[in-house]
């Protein structure tokens, strides 16, 4: 098997490197080890989340809750944007992988990962998981969103959108999301500010 890193550009703000990386780890480079955990920047749902973070995360510092953190890629991306992040995942092995990836990416002081949800509210909440999980988690996710926060939901295909909007919009004062699309994949963004 090749020991060469895989490089994925996620313009305009990030590049994701998976595998050995001896070069500089700058503010746009997310470095991941090879692992079974999901989230290496190749999937459209992850890429759209990174791009939504780059576009909509508040400038000058913010707190992110990353539900379903996988490799930690979104938390690490948020830290590269100047935020502080907490990632939660039901997979304890993914937590250890995400912690290692945060070290590889030189942002371990700005992120942490756990299998239990933190208390409090967050300026930005991301959740890139499948439709049924997002539907079930809706009240817990919305409860963690600050009143003027930004919610980014992904992992959805176009046929999932009506159900997800019907589930989340009533919990968000009737607000409708912006919908971003790439091929069949959709990302929903509620900006409450
Ligand atoms: C599609 S991956 C997303 C990984 C990464 N955040 C990304 O954007 O590429 C979904 C992750 O959600 C986790 N997950 C599934 N159900 C969950 C739940 N109920 N609570 C928290 N995490 C969950 C999975 O273990 C998996 O790591």
TrEMBL record:
Record flagged with keyword Methyltransferase: yes
Keyword Methyltransferase: yes
Molecular function terms, GO-annotated: protein methyltransferase activity
Pfam families according to UniProt: PrmA
Keywords: Methyltransferase, Transferase
Gene3D superfamilies: Vaccinia Virus protein VP39
GO biological process, one term: methylation
InterPro entries: Ribosomal_L11_MeTrfase_PrmA, SAM-dependent_MTases_sf
Domain of life (superkingdom): Bacteria
PANTHER family on file: ELECTRON TRANSFER FLAVOPROTEIN BETA SUBUNIT LYSINE METHYLTRANSFERASE (PTHR43648:SF1)
Descriptive protein name: Ribosomal protein L11 methyltransferase
């Amino acid at each position: 098997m090749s020991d060469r890193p895989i490089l994925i550009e996620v313009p305009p703000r990030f590049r994701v490197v998976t595998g050995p990386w001896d070069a500089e780890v700058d503010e746009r480079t997310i470095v991941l080890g090879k692992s079974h955990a999901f989230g290496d920047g190749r999937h459209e749902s992850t890429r759209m989340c990174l791009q939504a973070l780059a576009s909509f995360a508040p400038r000058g510092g913010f707190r992110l809750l990353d539900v379903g953190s996988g490799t930690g890629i979104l938390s690490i991306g948020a830290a590269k944007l100047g935020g502080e992040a907490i990632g939660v995942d039901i997979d304890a092995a993914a937590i250890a992988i995400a912690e290692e990836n945060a070290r590889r990416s030189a942002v371990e002081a700005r992120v942490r990962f756990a299998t239990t949800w933190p208390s409090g509210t967050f300026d930005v909440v991301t959740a890139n998981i499948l439709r049924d999980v997002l539907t079930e988690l809706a009240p817990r996710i919305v409860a963690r969103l600050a009143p003027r926060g930004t919610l980014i939901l992904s992992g959805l295909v176009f046929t999932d959108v009506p159900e997800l909007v019907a589930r989340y919009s009533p919990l968000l004062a009737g607000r409708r999301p912006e919908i971003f699309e790439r091929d069949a994949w959709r990302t929903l963004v509620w900006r409450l500010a």
